[in-house]
Amino acid sequence: MIRNYLNAWDVGTWVLLALAAGCVGHKSQTPTPEPTVPLPAGSLASRDVGVLPFTLVLAEDSLHWDSHFTDHPKVLATADSILLGFLTSRVPEVAWKSPARMWRGARGANDLPDDPHQLGVAILRQLPVGSYVPDPLRAQLRMLGAVAGGTYVLAPASLFFKTDSANRRMGRAELTMVLVDVRLGQVSWRSVARGTGDEPWTAVNAALKTLTPGLP
To answer: Is residue 108 pLDDT above 60, yes or no?
Structure first.
């Protein structure tokens, strides 16, 4: 009887210790933010690079920025304009081709959606460097790269706005950018740019500037 009692106590103790160790280990695991990797401007200098449109832009409800996002097509168009303006002004050594220009050149192509913002660009936010873009997006990007006259296309894969943890009155933009080698259908570069602001586009501009460190 005593032996059975001790064995049961030992088993119960080991179970509790294992659970406690698991809880401690779980608490110590803090997610590491993906680093911001500067845009490889030197590698792209003098090249033609197509710029893809935004397709995924979302904001946390806690920001109360509903008034900024009532007109979704306008939000996407504004984000496109800000990105293209940033690239042409701060990275002028690259010949950037806008989404509108590429779609005009690819007019009539059966494999492309009529609206650039319906392209499945958002799937790229999940792909690490070196991975291959799945079809049909892979074939679509190859076609757009041919229209742009270059090897690469730059994609704003996602744009999320979250409440800034350091200042709850500010919003933080998290912009995932991906560069695709359209000949190989492979991700060549990716980065998550972050910036804060009291309204969406101020935060986006702050995030974009982190992609070109050293410039004012």
So the answer is: yes
